[in-house]
Specification:
Layout: H1 2-24, E1 26-32, E2 35-41, E3 47-50, E4 58-62, H2 64-71, H3 77-82, E5 86-90, H4 92-96, H5 98-111, H6 113-116, H7 131-145, H8 148-153, E6 155-163, E7 166-174, E8 180-183, E9 191-196, H9 197-205, H10 210-215, E10 219-223, H11 225-228, H12 231-237
Parallel strand pairs: 1-4, 6-9
Antiparallel strand pairs: 1-2, 2-3, 4-5, 6-7, 7-8, 9-10
Helix pairs in contact: 1-5
């Protein structure tokens, strides 16, 4: 998924950011299926965050499935652009340098392959400064601290949260390995939960009951209803986030 790519990229920036800054010298914003990723490879030793950048020099908008095809070498950036699968805004030259970022991430992924096989949830921080980001970041930390949730839930959730800036998707995998929480759509969700941001925040803080939300049409479910009934285990296990 795109989230795994950016998680690895964040690690690359922390260890070898200066070299990438020298090679790229630019600021990117990637808008993928309602989620924005900011990659600053111009200032200092580089930085990464989930969320929009104040002054991106190159904004790339693309669907996650097409983005993954580019990463896997099945689709070139030029072909994606010509077929209107990739939209560019800003510095075209920076878009051409994206291949250097992909190469750096692939190199790092090969070196980290043995550690990745453990299935640990050690992705990039999901806290982008918004209440929604803080909730999922706290949930991510809870899953890392409580791998037993996988045995209790045994399912993959996708949360489609409607915000003023569009629909933001998050995946909570409590079925594979030790579990994980990432941004973006799940490759194969067992249960998809759709809610407005305000209602979701109330649900996670305990102000709104899941069954009441469903009855009032504030919570929509697609897929395994049994997993939806287990949402309480997640909200109860999650420490209260500061909203």
């Amino acid at each position: 998924m795109a989230s795994k790519f950016f998680s690895t990229l964040e690690s690359v920036i922390k260890t070898d950011g200066a070299a990438l800054v020298k090679k790229i010298n630019g600021v990117y914003q990637f808008d993928i299926d309602g989620t924005s990723y900011s990659v600053d490879l111009k200032n200092g030793n580089g930085s990464f965050k989930v969320g929009k950048h104040e002054k991106p020099e190159c904004t790339i908008t693309i669907k996650e499935e097409d983005f993954i095809q580019i990463l896997e070498g099945k689709l070139t950036e030029q072909t994606a652009f010509m077929k209107k699968k990739l939209a560019l805004k800003g510095n075209m030259a920076l878009a051409m340098k994206f291949k250097h970022i992909v190469e750096a991430v692939k190199k790092a992924s090969k070196g980290a392959a043995p550690a990745a096989s453990s299935g640990a949830s050690s992705g990039a921080s999901l806290d982008d400064g918004t209440p929604l980001g803080k909730v999922f970041d706290t949930l991510q930390k809870t899953v890392i601290a409580k791998p037993e949730l996988v045995g209790q839930i045994k399912g993959v959730y996708q949360f489609d949260i409607t915000t003023p800036s569009g629909v933001k998707k998050f995946t909570v995998d409590l079925k594979n390995g030790k579990g994980s929480v990432t941004t973006g759509a799940a490759p194969k969700a067992d249960c998809t939960i759709t809610m407005a941001e305000a209602d979701f925040l109330d649900l996670m803080s305990g102000k709104l009951n899941g069954q009441v939300a469903f009855t009032k049409g504030k919570l929509k479910i697609k897929g395994n209803m049994g997993l939806a009934m287990k949402l309480g285990k997640i909200t109860q296990a999650k420490p209260q986030a500061k909203l």
